[in-house]
Each structure stands twice: as C-alpha cells, then as structure tokens.
Design a protein that fits this description.
With about 260 residues, the protein is mostly helical. The protein has helices spanning about 1-25, 30-50, 55-70, 75-85, 90-100, 105-120, 125-135, 145-155, 160-170, 175-190, 195-205, 210-225, 225-240, 250-255. Helices cover about 75% and strands about 0% of the residues.
C-alpha cells in the first residue's frame, strides 16, 4: 500500500516538474514579428474603412499601425494613399517616400509611388519608379506597373511610349483588361479603327462593358461603317444604362423595338 502511495506521489511530482519545465521553456513571442502582425491587422482594418469612405476612422487605424510599427512600409503606403485621397499631397509624398526607403525592392510600393508622382504631373520621375517595379526580380505581376506607365505616358501626350508599355503589359498578360481597353482607346484616337475593334472585342471577352466603353464601341463601328454592330452596341447601352446618351441615328430605331 505504501509502495502504491509513493508511486502516485512520484508521478504527481514528475507531472508538476514537466509542466513547470514546459512553461519555463516556452518561447516568448518575437516582439518584431508581433509588432508586424498587429500593424498588418490595423492596416487591413483601416483599408476596409477607406472602402466605406470612413476616412477619419481609417486614419486612426493607420496611425495606430504606425505607432506600433514605424517601419511598416505597408502602413506608410496606406496612410499615403489616404492623404492623397483627401487632397493632402505633401503628407502623401512624405509617407510614400518613407515606404520606398523602407522597402526599396517592393514592386507594389514602387508602383504606388509612381502612380502618385504621375498624378502630380511628375511624369519623368514616375516612369523611373514604374521601371524599377517592373525590373524587380521575381515580380509576378509586372503588367500592372507597365499599364500604369502607359497611362502616365498618355497624360504626358507621349502616345508611342504609352503604346509600347501597353503592348509590353499584354505580352506578359494577354487578358489584362485595363491594358486591352487602353489599347482600344489609343487605337481609336490614332484612327486605327480595326485595331480599336480587335482590342475592344478582346476586352469584352474578359470584362463587361460600361457606358463609356459601349459608346466607344458605337464610335468604332460607325467609323468602320458597320452600322448593324453599332446598333447592337447602342441597344445594349440603352438597355443597361437608360440615361446614357445614344447617337440620334441609332436611338430612334432602338426605342421602336
């Protein structure tokens, strides 16, 4: 009986020692990783508030993220985007610059700063950051900065450079909607109507046309002399967007259907 009691006591003592050892050797959370984790949660939360246009609350969340982790390039980029949205360009640039300094090899960070510079009319500097984003090793989505660079060249009225970037984007991602639509619009602007039609049709295979794009389809087909297809675009435009203007020669026929 005594032997059984001693065995039970030993088992209890061994269990207590094991628990004590386990708790004492348990790794404490890495403070840097923990700061990154909490900061990321706050940035994501803030971005949800931005989507709802609750900018004041979003700003609070981004500032909390920066207070926890001042070296978060994502937090700096997020707050920079918000400052740009509320028309505070100097503060936006300050945070974009910090984001790039903290993550000089991040293609999304470089791309975002390039977009900001383009919006500010600094086209040459924007091109440099877009190029850096495209040239980042192992970047899986280079067609995004290439398309943004093309849009920036359009603003600068450099049509050939714009087209080169759009085509480069489509070479890497043939079904990328923004680049397809940009090429259709650019081709129409250059009066290359067959090309404009082809790019618009490719865009239609991946995206639904909005009112502006349907209007472009009407103009392209009118320029090519294909009034039947122009009427089809006009019919779709009036059905989907009843308040959108339709060319006079087409609207009366559609209304009678």
């Amino acid at each position: 009986m005594k032997l059984i009691r001693l065995l039970i006591i030993q088992i209890v003592l061994l269990t207590l020692i094991a628990c004590t050892t386990s708790s004492s050797t348990r790794k404490k959370p890495d403070p840097v990783k923990e700061a990154n984790r909490k900061s990321t949660i706050l940035v994501n939360l803030g971005m949800e508030y931005v989507k709802r246009q609750q900018y004041e609350v979003a700003m609070l969340e981004f500032n909390k993220a920066l207070a926890i982790n001042p070296n978060s390039s994502d937090a700096h980029t997020a707050i920079a985007n918000l400052y740009e949205t509320i028309d505070r360009p100097k503060l936006a640039q300050q945070h974009y610059k910090q984001a790039v300094e903290l993550a000089p090899d991040s293609p999304s960070t470089l791309n975002n700063y390039g977009k900001y510079l383009c919006n500010q009319g600094n086209y040459t500097e924007a091109e440099r950051y877009f190029k850096q984003a495209v040239d980042t090793p192992l970047y899986s989505r280079p067609w995004i900065p290439l398309t943004n660079a093309g849009q920036c060249f359009l603003r600068a009225n450099q049509l050939e450079s714009a087209e080169q970037n759009f085509r480069a984007a489509l070479k890497k991602m043939p079904a990328f909607g923004p680049a397809l639509m940009a090429m259709s619009q650019l081709s129409y602007q250059k009066k290359n109507y067959q090309s404009a039609r082809a790019f618009l049709q490719r865009y239609e295979s991946v995206e639904s046309l909005n009112a502006e794009q349907l209007s472009l389809g009407i103009k392209i087909e009118q320029a090519l002399g294909d009034m039947d297809t122009a009427r089809k675009y006009a019919d779709t435009l009036q059905k989907r967007f009843p308040s959108a203007p339709v060319p006079p020669g087409l609207s009366s026929k559609i209304k009678s259907q």
